[in-house]
Amino acid sequence: MGVKQLDQVNSLVIVGAQWGDEGKGKVIDFLSSKADLVVRFQGGDNAGHTVVYGANVFKLHHVPSGILNPETLCLLGNGMVINPLVLVRELDELEKRGIDTSNLRISAKAHLIMAYHQALDEANEVMLAEKKIGTTGRGIGPAYADKVLRRGIRAGELVDFGSFGERLNEVLPLHNRILKDIYGHPGFNLKEMNALYRPALNRLGPLVTDTTRLLAEKMAEGKKILFEGAQGALLDIDHGTYPYVTSSSTVAAAAASGTGLGPAGVTRVLGVLKAYTTRVGEGPFPTEDLAEAGDQLRERGSEFGTTTGRSRRCGWFDAVIARYAARINGLTGLAVTKLDVLSGMEVINLAVKYSCNGREIEYFPERIRDLSQCEPVYRTFPGWDEDLSMVRCYEDLPEAAKHFLEALEDSVGVKIDLISIGPDRSQTIVCKNSQIEIWSNCRQE
Ligand code: IMP
Fold it and tell me: Whole-angstrom Cα distance, residue 356 to residue 216?
């Protein structure tokens, strides 16, 4: 195998640069027609990507959006947690609608989310009462906790019913004890659990692969690889608004550890952010608008969760968090989504800094207590009334929209590569001299 030069690495990592739900699914779907591989590296079915293609709406949880392209190989990396029962349902649903899912591979080292993880997640939220995290209830936290406590079940066990049963027999009694003694839950029966998971083993076992080796081979062949992040920078277990975060590392560096790729493979990072901000679940949110503007954004942007159906908290674009996301991810470009949702707003606000206990700060505070006391300092822009859904090139955007985007780019300090002005693949503007031109069919002259 020849020696690979860094400038020959054809990879792009796509991450959320806010609190998740930034429209990553749409961006990845748009770019994946040119990708040979699409790889997920963290999270599980807490993610929910809606991809709209013509009259078809696909809601994906584990499976990368690249599955809709028959030529693209899709990998679920070792950094993920996977609910086998949900994944089987997802694959069946795709197959039923004529999508070939045979190009999916699952890392043997990914961890399984089991029924007891979901029960623990739900019971824990009930116990936390008003201090709850507002999780998606998918068992993500308990599954990652088991991984770290070295009592998880890995996807590699899906290939052999005997070893799956043995491992379940080892770990189930402890979970049952916790469920019964702490949460008053009846627990799970070993025989019933084996029967419940058997069909999933039959279906998913053949897809389990050494994805780290497969990825290294494809990279050496110069294949184009997209890494699909889930959730967003502010939900990262280390850098997010802890404890109101998810349980995985959501930043670009996780694309290396969550797939077995060396860090030098992560050279270009596209941060996806909405032209405003949303958040689901609890925790501080400085630019949240609890008045009319927040309601307008929710209604126009259909801001309801793909996974839970919960209504999302809405507010203005926050350049402080975007700058922070740019720093902790090493963003090399931005994708700004849902610009069309701002059409018809009389004025548009953009937070450039915070006022915190009488002091103005431009950085994101480390302590959640400090963040809770921050008030946004806004720059206000005139809105526009034009419908943007048919715009296909930057120059055709209304002057007021361009003015807002220029200010956004300036305040974040990272170039905008792509603008999304509607849910459909075609409703996408690729900006001039963008790092993603090789990934898209459109080239702006
Ligand atoms: P968990 O990931 O289900 O444990 O939830 C922890 C926090 O992350 C909660 O505030 C969830 O609402 C949030 N969260 C998890 N996944 C997503 C996502 O895909 N989009 C937006 N928020 C998410």
Answer: 47
